[in-house]
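tool=predict chain=A
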Amino acid sequence: MAKTLFEKIWDKHVIKTIEDGPSVLYIDKHFIHEVTSPQAFKGLEQRGLKVFRPKQVVATADHNVPTINQHLPIKEELSRKQVQTLKENCEKFGIELYGLGHPYQGIVHVIGPELGVTQPGMTIVCGDSHTSTHGAFGTIAFGIGTSEVEMVLATQCLLQSKPKLMRINVEGKLNKGVVSKDIILYIISLISASGATGYAVEYAGSAIRNLSMEARMTICNMSIEMGARCGMIAPDEITFNYVKGRQFAPAGKAWDEAWAYWKTLYSDADAKFDKEININARDIEPMITYGTNPGMGIGVSGHVPALTEIDEKEKPSFEKSLLYMGLEPGTNIKGKKVDYVFIGSCTNSRIEDLRMVAAFVKGKHKADDVEVWIVPGSKQVEKQAKEEGIDKVFEEAGFILRQPGCSACLGMNEDKIPAGKYCISTSNRNFEGRQGPNARTFLASPLTAAAAAITGEVADVRELISTALEVE
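tool=predict ok
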């Protein structure tokens, strides 16, 4: 019987299916951080339970950490308490922690892949919605709630209902200046922020197959922003070459066995999906959001929709969104002044993202009235950036390479965007107050963000980029 990639992995991990109910799904890897784990550990203590399989749990501190002077005590009391509580819980329950100061510390969805913890065919969960990132390796990876975190810690299993299946095919060659972040922002603008609700989404097509692993992670990362339960891409030689030789990747005979299995992970030619969407890569231009959900996106050369272009039912929320953003219907977004540029987050903080930005800004300098924050996704990314001299390129451009953390992706740490200020951000969400109370966020690719840093406004990177610059 023909199966999709999702079905092959799902079926291999189902322990039991409850009649007319959910399945008991075995979880291979469980990532935890300081925000969604304290209550789960407290629940275990109250019930006198141990962590069932601590070796399958990976812990790091990322959401609440500062990105400058990490050797000093954390200033914000709540952030300091959460990071300290994670440390105490990991010591108590025998879980290895990659905390501040550890060479493997970083954003949870960056360190898993770069350490070789994330591998094809796995089931992976974390108390964080952007766990879908790991699906780039051909895994079923999704975010869970705190009570579910407790369930996985206690049993290494989870009750889950099987989602519907969607495949999004992106065929053709990308235009100059268009990268993976533009692909996913285009898809979300096309089907809306709720267009994949209830689905597990597989991305396929020649444009997807030609992407690097870092670029694939960006796409799977934002699957949740269109309501999907998870996103995934079938593993191939690009995947295998990325994983091979990493710290926790299989080696020797174990590698040969794993590789033999991984090569079977693809959707069969006659596998059935509940829904399929076909996209021509040539239709995608550099994208940017204008509103307060990731589905409110347009090509950078386009305009904010006029009221006549909006469905009557959607007008109240549309007008509320534009009021928050300080934008008028029907106006161009290109040329809009920006105050901050944030390049980082679990969406775009890997070494490839930093290389892309460095190649673009080399020999240029930021606009005088723009503040630029470059935040690597991990200590390893930070180290590699310094070894390659990327930090020097940034310094000469007036950028500063900070220390690893979630940073200005969300207003949960010290890196907040001031009220009323505009930030062009490579992160994944532009909700009201996401980057700080009353902060205004434009989501874009690292290239489009870098263009804004240099020009001081929303710019079309195609007008600035050299045809010789190779990206993704």
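The radius of gyration is 21 Å. The longest helix spans residues 77-93.
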